[in-house]
Design goal:
The protein is of the alpha/beta class. The protein is built from twelve helices and twelve strands. The longest helix is centred in the last third of the chain and has 22 residues.
Length: 362
């Protein structure tokens, strides 16, 4: 009897997957992929078989049979902007995930691997939900200040932690006995990247483009940087385009200043008296606080709560430092870690209960 949901969430150097019965997690595994193995693949899409085979091997080792899996949910990729919701994986989505039209990232494998597995075990297709390219901002929020730098709304948009932000907002609302759509919430996800969004009655109407150099810096990303200095670097003759992009998206933040992307290590060094680390901690907390405060203006200060989430939310000193800067706006709630797997499982359960899926591209 088919009753389980298989959830698949590829990351840069790991593949996380779980088996759920409704909202109950029965089994989870996070396979680490050594960097030397990942580097042997020229393109992210080339990792398809390598990651897929590892997933099904583990699922079968745990005793789960193909005909027990009722639905397969994958993490969405960097396709064109779309509305929030749950989508069938269709041919257009697969094509855009392979091409990586908004970026080459491991999340593009989520739809590809999940759909392939779904079809192999006798299901029509797989599904994704609330991908990181959901764009619910009004048109006036998309103006940059120069027409040459505006994003093409048909193919480009914000890239942020939509899945975790929306799920965490819904969990908070559930705790209050309310609906996510009833509240104005500022939600800040802090992990390898940082995204801060204002969720106004069910829509994230403003959020920073977390992958590509906007908002606070993070362990690996530069955040908003001086435009004139960036121009100087680009035309210095020292770097090609690929290197400059890497400086912004993978070698910024803590990596640039401290040589590590490990926020826990930075915290330990700061607590041990490392003045440079403490300066970077203060700068990080300051920039996150500024971004959160900026978002309060979108709803004229009518914020029901501020939610801090993601891996960095495990740092009690950092969360206290940020809270002390922003709790004048609204009550602050901390959710340690992320809820992406649960989010996908819940979306899968809704489909099994009869909720229709959206068709990507329509």
């Amino acid at each position: 009897m088919r009753k389980y949901t298989l959830v698949i969430n590829p990351g840069a150097t790991s593949t996380k997957f779980s088996i759920y019965d409704g909202e109950n997690e029965l089994f989870t595994e996070n396979i680490k992929h050594p960097i030397e193995e990942i580097q042997q693949f020229h393109e992210v899409a080339d990792q398809f078989d390598y990651r897929k085979d590892a997933i099904m091997q583990k699922v079968h080792e745990q005793g789960y049979k193909d005909d027990e899996i009722a639905i397969v949910m994958g993490r969405g990729g960097l396709t064109r902007p779309c509305e929030s919701g749950t989508y069938r994986v269709n041919e257009l989505m697969r094509k855009e995930c392979i091409e990586g039209i908004q970026g080459k990232h491991a999340c593009n494998l989520g739809a590809l691997i999940s759909d392939s597995i779904a079809k192999e075990i006798g299901l029509d297709c797989a599904y994704i939900a609330d991908p990181g390219i959901v764009d619910e901002r009004p048109d006036y929020a998309k103006i940059t200040g120069h027409k040459e730098f505006d994003l093409d709304p048909a193919h480009e948009g914000v890239i942020w932690h939509c899945l975790n932000q929306k799920m965490t907002g819904k969990l908070y609302a559930r705790e209050l006995g309310k609906q996510y759509e009833d509240l104005n919430l500022i939600i800040c996800h802090m992990g390898g990247g940082v995204s801060c969004g204002i969720h106004a009655h069910g829509k994230c109407v403003e959020v920073n483009r977390a992958l590509c150099g906007l908002g606070p810096f993070s362990p690996t990303r530069s955040g908003s940087i001086n435009a004139s200095k960036l121009i100087e670097v680009c035309f210095s003759g020292k770097y090609d385009m690929g290197k400059v992009k890497k400086m912004v998206t993978a070698e910024g933040g803590f990596v640039s200043y401290l040589g590590t992307n490990d926020a826990y290590e930075v915290e330990k060094r700061a607590l041990a008296g490392d003045a440079k680390c403490q300066l970077l901690v203060d700068a990080f907390c300051y920039q996150v606080s500024l971004e959160i405060s900026r978002l309060a203006a979108v709803v004229k200060g009518k914020v029901d709560a501020i939610i801090l989430t993601g891996g960095i939310a495990y740092s009690k000193p950092w969360m206290e430092q940020i809270t002390n800067q922003i709790d004048w706006i609204a009550p602050v709630k901390v959710y340690k870690g992320e809820n992406e797997m649960l989010a996908l499982a819940i979306c899968g359960k809704e489909l099994l209960d009869g909720k229709p899926a959206k068709e990507y591209g329509e």
